Amino acid sequence: MPGSVIVGPDAALDGAAAPETDGTIAKRAHYAPPWADLSIIGIAGSSGSGKSTLSQAIVNKLNLPWVVILSIDSFYKSLDPESSRAAFRNEYDFDSPDAIDFDTLVERLRDLKAGKRAEIPVYSFEKHARLDRTTDIYSPHVLILEGIFALYDPRVVELMDMKIFCEADADTCLSRRILRDQRDRGRDIEGIIKQWFTFVKPNFEKYVNPQAKVADIIVPRGVENHVAMSMVSQFIQQKLVEKSTHHRAALIRLEIGGNSEPLSDKVLVMKQTSQLRGMNTIIHDIDTSSEDFIFYFDRLTALLVEEALNNAPFVEADIPTPQNLTYAGLCFKGEVSAVIVLRGGAALEAGLHRVITDCKTGRVLIQSNIRTGEPELHYLVLPKDIAEHEAVLLLDAQMSSGGSALMAVQVLVDHGVRADRIVLVTYSAGRMGIHRLTKAFPEITVVVGNMVQDIEERWVERRYFGC
């Protein structure tokens, strides 16, 4: 997920916490991922003043995946038939605040500010209508909201950490708008100029220019203003450092009492039978071939998944047998899915499909920052209906500090998965990582093959994949 995410018209991008019981309220520790307190930067200005170019230049200068650009153009209201016909005649006022759905914008910004997933509408200027699809935004640390009315609504301004107003002379704005609307929106020059003098220019004085009064920074010349760009970039970098510091401090706080407190009753360590110890011996043997390692690890992970499914909800079911008898049995209460924590969790996937051949799977990539050791979310794909599944298996080969597991569980919770429906399945885990996880999420079940030292090198995936 390198670079930035730009959300605007025609962009194409592909929770509810579990009810707390009296027994878990006192035990619960707070965990907040870095995106739980989103920083919002607003960039307003006249049409063609360089807002989008400035936003993109700032993101390119930072070159970080945690900064997202959201265009306020996505929130144009759906048009009724009469307004739609007026729009095609270039007679509809898109440059009035009445054209923007501010209520939906505020709702989505509040969701993002709270660390939740937000569905962003997709507006087509060629069709003058909202499309049926939406775009998901999730887990940005900093969001740049750009548009002519970014600083207009007091409810939006209240959510912002920095407010910027772009200035440019009218001739420059008009020339930029002509080029953009011809290239990106399928407009003709006559219609563009008609709209400019009928709506854009009068509304600039009436609605847009007054927004400069609430701005923290007024940026003349847009992207050519290197001083302003440096100021904004430094502000964003400072915010990211603060979020990283708070996140690492929260992880450290979760360690307190880890060595003295007993493990949660919901932590299930596989019984070390002779068969299990025999397979572990082969897996740990330095002389074991790659083929044998994969064969026995797949066998062992199938056992882990079987144990995890013992914690999935079942319902009674009476079925007819070939002998014309009725068997009183059990079947899954609902769908069971799995989320693979890349790349280690992919080593458990073959074992998973041995047990559930048609299991729906999602993927999440969480990597530790080389400099700080902080876990960072890089990639996420989940089944669309995952919040409705009765059990979600979270698969990872190893867990040491627990930072990645914490973040992965938080991602699932943010997408509507109840914590008591999550079962973490891992081949090996350290006591500290398990303590961190179950202290923040006491409802989840953890199935572990082996308990190991708190800090163990991730060797399983390297041997399984041969690299």
Task: Write a concise keyword list for the protein shown above.
alpha/beta, 2 domains, Rossmann fold, 17 strands, 467 residues, uridine kinase activity, single chain, 6-stranded parallel beta sheet
Outline the structure in words.
This protein has 467 residues and is α/β, with parallel strands linked by helices. The chain folds into 2 domains: 5-250, P-loop containing nucleotide triphosphate hydrolases (Rossmann fold, 3-Layer(aba) Sandwich); 267-465, Rossmann fold (3-Layer(aba) Sandwich). It has 14 helices and 17 strands. The protein has helices at 22-25, 51-62, 81-88, 102-113, 154-158, 170-184, 189-208, 226-253, 274-284, 290-309, 349-355, 403-414, 431-440, 460-465, and strands spanning 5-7, 39-45, 67-71, 118-124, 129-137, 142-146, 162-167, 217-220, 267-269, 314-320, 326-332, 336-342, 360-368, 375-381, 391-399, 422-430, 445-452. The protein has a 7-stranded mixed β-sheet, with helices on both faces. A 6-stranded parallel β-sheet has the order 1-3-6-2-7-8, with helices on one face. A two-stranded antiparallel sheet has the order 4-5.
Show the helix and strand layout:
Elements: E1 5-7, H1 22-25, E2 39-45, H2 51-62, E3 67-71, H3 81-88, H4 102-113, E4 118-124, E5 129-137, E6 142-146, H5 154-158, E7 162-167, H6 170-184, H7 189-208, E8 217-220, H8 226-253, E9 267-269, H9 274-284, H10 290-309, E10 314-320, E11 326-332, E12 336-342, H11 349-355, E13 360-368, E14 375-381, E15 391-399, H12 403-414, E16 422-430, H13 431-440, E17 445-452, H14 460-465
Parallel strand pairs: 1-3, 2-6, 2-7, 3-6, 7-8, 9-17, 12-13, 12-15, 15-16, 16-17
Antiparallel strand pairs: 4-5, 10-11, 13-14
Helix pairs in contact: 2-8, 6-7, 9-10, 10-11
GO molecular function, one term: uridine kinase activity
GO biological process, one term: pyrimidine-containing compound salvage
Catalytic activity: cytidine + ATP = CMP + ADP + H(+); uridine + ATP = UMP + ADP + H(+)
